[in-house]
Design brief:
By secondary structure, the chain is α/β, with parallel strands linked by helices. It contains 24 helices and 22 strands. Pathway: Cell wall biogenesis; lipoteichoic acid biosynthesis.
Length: 699
């Protein structure tokens, strides 16, 4: 015991050393020097917890490495990099880095390439301050033991683990419970500002692995389901009409003409404005700002709410592990063909698996698109073309969910080959440039909407089109353009939630033109609305949500409940039903007779088949190359021909024809086995045709 006390006394200077990375983390994650100082004296206990966590990590790394200096540099570098990334993410999206961001690291890579000005003067000065302070303590004092023997390393490892677990479990002394320290998972900026970055991360991690709910069982779910009102209209009761239902999530679609003092050379979204005046329109309170499209999609398709999940989490990657009854499966049960369309990779946000779990019949990702780009992303007009093709090919009614990418982040000038909009106003050139780029992007979205409405209007087939933006665009760090243009006064604007999270929405149809509603809803309530509008049969969940939406059409973050007159207990049944679907035993599904997942689910428009292969010569004598022409069906534009398993340069002509150039080492006599293949950006083969063989002679 005495030896242990001696060991502890010898390690006490580590407490002084650990305060450096703690303060540096707070400066980088908050983006300024003043906030950490204010936080340090207002939240002393939280500061001590952050210190405790860093000390436990430092002791653990010392135990592993055996050298104090190296361990310090390793753990400090790791923590400071996380804090720096958190600060950058907070500036762009308004949400700091959370443990669940590690689940979607691949998805973030597309956005990272447009992030600039990471190593600013402030960041560099903080890093220099860290290096200088650390150097003085480590190399200019004799307080620290450089090398630790093996026996001491074992003791230090034990101490480190006990220290960390004491914070993680809040045991044996529940200090966090006593002083009301908890993770504000519904507001991650507040969570980090109050608890500090290290403690907030630990609390978030604990919340991430805690999904138990008191009072949840089969009877509780059954009682809620039985008490839900039955739908007012059943399929086929009043009309034989089964309209197409087309749901379009338009990337970062927002109306910048609402900015006071901003003058546009012409209206960037004239058709959208026309529909707002003539039909059903309104706003949707998005759970996201600047990114996180999948979460808005999740709410609309399933009726579940991100308000019951930690802010910053991604439902698709974290919480969907089983089938989920969605709009796709609800409409499929009534004879619809349900199709998902996305102009991005099939693996993005785990979409390929998610859409299968949601009951879609097919999914058309970018790998099956024509490479028609507008700026760095697929043009919205190409999404429209795929929507039209989908409804043309199916024999009956369609449910189509599509999202777009043309207006995706970034908004720096030069994003599009040509910009046809000019913006004037009393604000900075940077804000002008971003607004002009945004105007060009949403104009493409507006033209897409017009093309679809005019097509289905002319065709005469009963159709509903719901069109909205998933979130506001991220226009500069820390809402720079919104503040510069005086759209908001700052992060403390009294209408910040409404202004920065409300996105415009229109719902058009061509069979009930007198129907006009003013919608101001949460995304999770759009599905029940569309089911009633299309006069189809919903499920127990949409029945429940329809009734709830009449009382609370908008569900804000928890810290806005009081000001919006929402009683938290009134949402408990909603939360219980969602828990049953995502984490529970799915009691409410037990009486389903039709499987939610379509056993014939596929990528693309149908099986890739080859009917014939022709060569411009059957003899390679004297030839340096041969051209193959393949004929078949459903040949993807981004697919390619393989010869005996080897990829060959391919030119796609149309869905039925492609040519391939054979040269070099592949130009050999014998039997050539030809296939048509499509793969994604991760080199995963998504589809492959049958084989067709041709015999090549010569030489």
């Amino acid at each position: 015991m005495e030896r242990l006390l001696v060991l502890i006394r010898r390690r006490l200077p580590i407490l002084l050393l650990a305060i450096i990375p703690v303060l540096i983390m707070e400066i980088l994650s908050r983006g300024n020097y003043l906030d950490p100082l204010t936080w340090s004296y207002k939240h002393v206990l939280e500061l001590l917890f952050n210190e405790w966590i860093v000390v436990s990590l430092l002791l653990f790394f010392i135990a592993i490495i055996g050298r104090t200096r190296i361990a310090y540099w390793v753990i400090s570098a790791f923590l400071i990099i996380l804090a720096l990334i958190s600060g950058v993410k907070l500036k762009i999206l308004g949400v700091p880095l959370t443990p669940w961001d590690l689940v979607v690291a691949g998805e973030a890579s597309d956005m990272v390439k447009y992030v600039t000005n990471i190593l600013t003067f402030n960041v560099l000065s903080v890093i220099i301050l860290f290096l200088a302070g650390s150097y003085l303590l480590l190399y200019r004092t004799t307080m620290f033991i450089k090398k630790v023997n093996l026996k001491e390393r074992g003791i230090l490892a034990g101490i480190a683990i006990v220290m960390f677990l004491a914070v993680y479990t809040d045991l044996p002394l529940p200090v966090q419970k006593w002083f009301g320290i908890e993770a504000a998972v519904w507001n991650q900026a507040q969570n980090t500002n109050t608890n500090g970055y290290a403690l907030a991360t630990v609390l978030n991690t604990r919340a991430m692995f805690s999904d138990k709910r008191d009072g949840y069982d089969d009877k509780a779910v059954e009682a809620i389901v039985n008490s839900s009102p039955k739908p007012p209209v059943k399929a086929g009761d009043t009309t034989p009409i089964k309209p197409n239902v087309i749901v379009i999530l338009s990337e970062a679609f927002w109306d910048p003409t609402v900015i006071p003092g901003a003058k546009f050379s012409k209206d960037p979204i004239p058709f959208f404005h026309q529909l707002q005046k003539s039909g059903t329109s309104g706003t949707m309170l998005s759970p996201q700002y600047g990114g996180g499209t999948a979460n808005v999609e999740f709410e609309v398709l399933t009726g579940n709410s991100m308000r019951f999940l930690p802010q910053g989490s991604v439902a698709y990657n974290q919480y969907i592990s089983n089938e989920v009854d969605s709009l796709a499966s609800i409409y499929a049960r009534q004879g619809y063909t349900s199709t998902a369309i996305s102009p991005f990779y099939n693996w993005y946000f785990n979409s390929n698996k998610i859409y299968q779990d949601f009951g879609f019949s097919k999914y058309i990702p970018i790998e099956y698109f024509k490479p028609n780009y507008s700026g760095p992303y697929i043009a919205d007009s190409e999404v429209a073309a795929n929507i039209i093709r989908t409804t043309e090919q199916s024999p009956g009614s369609d449910f189509v969910f599509a999202n777009t990418m043309e207006n995706h982040f970034h908004y720096y000038p030069g994003k599009f080959p040509k910009n046809t909009f000019d913006v004037t106003g009393d604000f900075s050139p940077s804000s002008v440039g971003m607004l002009e780029t945004l105007a060009q992007g949403i104009n493409g979205s507006d033209r897409m909407l017009q093309e679809l409405v005019e097509y289905y209007q002319k065709k005469g087939e009963p159709t509903i089109i719901a069109f909205w933006g998933d979130h506001l665009p991220a226009l500069g760090d820390d809402y720079a353009t919104y503040i510069d243009t005086k759209y908001i006064s700052g992060k403390d604007d009294p209408d910040f939630l409404k202004k920065m999270y409300s996105v415009p929405l229109v719902v058009w149809n061509n069979f009930d033109t007198t129907h006009k509603d003013n919608l101001n809803i949460s995304p999770s309530f759009l599905g029940p609305y569309l089911i009633e509008l299309s006069k189809q049969q919903g499920n127990y969940y949409t029945n429940f949500l329809s009734a709830l939406a009449k009382k609370y059409p908008i569900i804000p973050p928890k810290d806005h409940f009081q000001e919006m007159n929402i009683k938290e207990e009134d949402l408990k049944d909603y939360e219980t039903l969602q828990y049953d679907i995502l984490f529970g035993d799915r009691h409410a599904y037990k009486n389903y007779l039709t499987p939610i997942i379509d056993p014939k689910y596929r990528l693309g428009y149908g099986p890739i088949t080859l009917d014939s292969v022709k060569s411009d010569s059957q003899d390679i004598s004297g030839r340096t190359s041969l051209t193959l022409t393949v004929h078949g069906t459903n040949l993807p534009p981004l697919g390619y021909v393989t010869l005996n398993g080897k990829a060959v340069p391919t030119t796609w002509i149309d869905d039925h024809t492609a040519t391939a150039l054979v040269e070099g080492n592949l130009l050999k006599t014998g039997l050539w086995d030809i296939q048509f293949t499509v793969k994604d950006s991760k080199e995963t083969i998504l589809g492959k045709s049958n084989s067709v063989s041709i015999d090549i002679g010569g030489r």
